[in-house]
Amino acid sequence: VHIMALRFEILGRFNRARAAQLTLPHFVCQTPLFMPVGTQGTIKGLTNNQLEDIGCQIILGNTYHLALRPTAELIDELGGLHNFMNWPRALLTDSGGFQMVSLLHLADITEKGVTFQSPVDGKPMLLTPEQSIKIQNKIGADIIMALDDVVRTTITGPRIEEAMYRTLRWIDRCIAAHEKPNEQNLFGIVQGGLDPALRDICVRGLVDRNLPGYAIGGLAGGEDKDSFWRVVAQCTAALPEDKPRYVMGVGYPLDIVVCSALGADMYDCVYPTRTARFGTALVPEGVLKLKHKVMEADVRPIDPTCSCMVCKNYTRSYIHCLVTKDAMGSQLLSYHNLAYMMRLSKDLHMSIIEGRFPEYVCGFLQKQFPKGDVPEWVCNAMEVAGIDISSCCVPFS
Amino acid sequence: MELHLHCLRRLSLLPQPSRFPSCLFSEEEKRNRVQEEEHHEKKKMRFVVKACRNGRAREGVLHLGSCPTAIETPSLLLSTCKGLPFFITRDLLPSLPSPDSHLLQMSPLHFLECPSATTISNIGGLHQMVGLHEHCFVAAPRDSILGLPDFEGTNKLGASFETTGGRRLVKPVEYMKIISSLKPDLWTSLADEVPAWVSEKRNQMSVDRTVCWLDDCIGINLAAGASVLGAIVGGSSLDERRHCAQEVVKRNVAGYWIGGFGLGESMEERPALLAAVTDLLPAERPRQICGLGLPEEVLQGVAAGIDLFESTYIYHLTLGGSALTFPLDGEERHGYDSQLSDIGSDHTKINLRATVYRKDTSPIVDGCCCYTCQNHTRAYLNHLLNVHEMLAHILLEM
Ligand SMILES: [Zn+2]
Ligand SMILES: [Zn+2]
Q: Do the bridges between strand A143-145 and strand A185-190 make them parallel or antiparallel, or are there none, so unpaired?
């Protein structure tokens, strides 16, 4: 008997790519989908209404930050994170481990859990798999993530193997600690660095546990792109067809298109909002730097093909004048960038359902690489995905 | 002084020029001009005083071109930065009480750096640029937040301001170039605002300059002149206040902008200064004031017959993490509550940063119909403030 709190129905396919309906306790989502990161229980400067307007389906909350403030106990007491932030749609929380390892230099991982120095009083604290799940049970998101042993992808050697096996041992402790399998879906995380043999052991171990969904972890950490897509391709091929697949930390539009072609369904990244703070907008052609001097007299919208509130109302010139000085510009850019990611998700979903996924991918690549210089790793990945992109590539001489 | 006399004379002596001397304009240009004038006619302001109360205080209705509904006065103007309300996003603007919130105040000084006046004109003016077609903008250089008068830097050529980009001297020609490109619904002439403590001579000079610049501004752009609020200064001198008001009243202006307040004068001397000015102003034109922000200061202004106020107080409260709970329905006010004041709250506002609101699941004001109160609890706002999230300011400003 396996209990899960989601339904995953595939509505359309193109080779490995799939478009599905993911029914979660709080929302019925369409995949592929992108999840904005709302670290502190809010997305930088956007209201819940705006997030709903642009089509946001799931928000990601960071367990580490929420556990520090306002604390899991308080969120629980006030009826869970959905109630606390008054967000009616789906939520996902991470395990908190990654934040510790990436934010705190003094984090130390042992078999018991992640030991870290409390940023409040400096005392050593321990986050065990059991505690991570307990906290996430209190926060109450639709999807919760297992605590995994995170190592940088650029690290090699026995540490990768140790982390992979530990992740497998910890998943059992997470499953045992999970008190709300009827309301919350526990996703396991595939580790194993860039080593296909280790990834294989980890995927098979997790699939045996019959979890409601799976994440591919340990990527988007500075590894080369060719290794990146090969790990994704290997994992998606080995994961069950009828469960959602989430590639963690992936957020560049090009990466999302490639991963979706390889059969992944969910993504999260701070990139769209972070890059907005630096004055950069995501557009079909790539990126637009609004701080650049040439924007000063440009009276066009950021993206003339975008129908978001920002593009309908503001010119590049005006946003240029906002981003060079104030915070207000980044708010508008975040809005557009997230709207862009939502539109990308929807376009992927619809093009798969309507049987025109290869055409969509080609159109996307043509705009990003008008000279036909599509990176080799993309060409390689698309070959494995069974998508002919020769029409948008310059033939190799 | 010479300059001043020259300006005064110019206005009274100049014959009303024929609008389109045919030798100067082509047929097409003439057509464009006519269209522009018609457009202007449509956008014209109308103001009616409905009732007067307790002497000078009055209630009125203001119709402004781009606003679909009439605005009841006395009314607050929402402060903006570069034409956008400080923290409120555009989708939330409609959820503010209408139609008062359709009235925005903006400072042309925010556009000294960029975009250029030409670019703003290419975009089609301020309303087009900020995407707020149904909102009205009143343009005034001093905004009490990012642009403050710098009387020491001001000279006969122009007014100086302390801006985020440093000290800037703004000459009437330059100012009018921005105004002409922005095309706000109303705009104020340049003023030389001085603090209450300057010498009598300096105060007189400020009145002379302010009147002179009014003539300059109107002279530079006759078309825009229809929507000008003439600036009135005069510091803490009743005589200078009256003198300035008398001069400005002689000009053809749409209304009045009373400056030079909130610059060191005392609460006690203010009512007399205000009354000295408003007593001389024709009743049928709107009056805006700059520099009065606190609720009790606004009440002083209302009593003196002021119609329009800025809302910088709300901005500062919001930044400080407080929410206004001022009883608007005349509800009985209770005595001093030491418990509230300990945490920086009183009966007009609460400090949401305080830990007592950590678990408070009630809205800021029970029964309030604003977006924030309808959707969020005091506990959530307390959390957002504690983690320094931008959303907190967005929600509080509402
Ligand atoms: Zn857009
Ligand atoms: Zn309210």
A: parallel
pLDDT in tens, A97-111: 887 777 766 678 899
C-alpha span between B282 and B23 (Å, rounded): 39
Residue B26 Cα to chain centre, angstroms: 39
Query: Which ipTM did the prediction report?
Result: 0.87
Q: Least CA distance to B374: which residue of chain A?
A: A86
Q: Which chain A residue's Cα is nearest to B82?
A: A322
Q: What residues contact residue A16 under an 8 Å CB cut-off, 6+ apart?
A: A236, A237, A261, A262, A263, A385, A386
Q: What is the DSSP letter of A183?
A: T
Q: In chain A, which residues have their Cβ closer than 8 Å to the Cβ of B356?
A: none
**The one-letter amino acid at A248:** M
Confirm or reject contact between B395 and chain A (CB < 8 A). yes
In order of A8, A36, A120, A189, A385, the CA distances from A249 in angstroms are 22, 11, 27, 12, 21
Mean pLDDT of A182-190: 98
* Strand pairing class (A213-216; A245-247): parallel
**Distance between CA B380 and CA A4 in Å, rounded?**
30
Task: Report the candidate in A116, A85, A354 with the shortest Cα–Cα distance to residue B391.
Answer: A85
Residue with the larger pLDDT of the pair B312 and B256 = B256
Q: Which residues contact A293 (CB under 8 A, 6 or more apart)?
A: none
**Is the CB of A296 less than 8 angstroms away from the CB of B118?**
no
To the query of whether residue A94 is one of the catalytic residues in this protein, the response is: yes
